[in-house]
Amino acid sequence: MKLQLLPSTFDATGFCSQQQHLSCFVIDDCLAIDAGSLAMATTAVQKEQIRNVILTHAHLDHIAGLPLFIDDMFVSLDEPVRVYATKEVIAILEDNIFNWEVYPKFSELKNKRGAVMRFVQIEIETEIFIKHLRIKPVEVNHGVQTVGYLISDDKSNIAVTGDTAKTDKFWDIVNREKSPAAILIECAFPDELEDLAFKSHHSTPSVVQRELKKLKHTNCPVYVINMKPMYRERIVKQIENLKIENLHILEVGKIYEL
Ligand SMILES: [Zn+2]
Question: Ligand 1: distance of its center to the CA of 11 in Å?
């Protein structure tokens, strides 16, 4: 399985930076998990192939590129872009984004070949099948309705927490699966901002350390994601200080073969 966290920020010289403002992971160049930088950072091949997007939740940093992607692709689409999300997330998007005021209601629009965007409602812990991938949404703890995902193909499986604070269900379900090739875990804030992390239902390095004690697959590589860009350096240092051998930082833009 090929996994890439798309870039979303430029450094001082205009090149892509490791700071992550937006969240958008691409699997095998054909499935997007979240759509933060979907319109802005996809390659031509990815633009051509991505017709399925699964959303963790409706926060702006996870959906910002979705309306722009449909807009970019509007004329050339010969099938609708299918957006998989829970009922609650679909309602938030239809009421607040695709509402003719912030952006067009693409679910009601067609190009010459038909519909351009279609929502597909997912149910918590009910598997969905997209192309060669089996995907299970698992509810996490982020203050608003949010899911993480377990994604498998014939050869390997990965787990992505999405945005979350302390959670048990996700680890219970990951522990029942065969050992993942990678687990992606959020860590938005440094330890000194634990109050803010707690109030906004995010994690800190100390929370990550406690959460990983629930994981039974002790040798599985774990990658930290969704670090708030302004705190990245501090979070990276605190993660390194934990000295957990299989805990790494997911590199923005890098293609991981899992
Ligand atoms: Zn969020």
Answer: 24
Residue owning tokens 């699997």:
27
Strand positions, DSSP E, 92-230: 110-111, 114-115, 117-121, 128-130, 133-139, 147-152, 157-160, 182-186, 222-225
- The per-residue pLDDT for range 1-45, each reduced to its tens digit, is 999 999 999 988 989 999 999 999 999 999 999 999 999 999 999
Interval between CA 128 and ligand 1 midpoint (Å): 23
Which of the pair, 212 or 14, is modelled with greater confidence? Answer: 212
163 Cα to the center of ligand 1, angstroms: 5
Q: Where are the alpha helices (DSSP H) in the chain?
A: 38-41, 44-49, 60-63, 65-73, 87-96, 169-176, 194-199, 205-212, 232-242
- The CA 7 to ligand 1 mean position distance, Å, reads 18
Look up residue 253 and give its two tokens.
């833009």
Q: Which residues contact 210 (CB under 8 A, 6 or more apart)?
A: 166
CA of 75 to the centre of ligand 1 (A): 31
189 pLDDT band (50/70/90 cuts)? very high
Residue 185 Cα to ligand 1 midpoint, Å, equals: 13
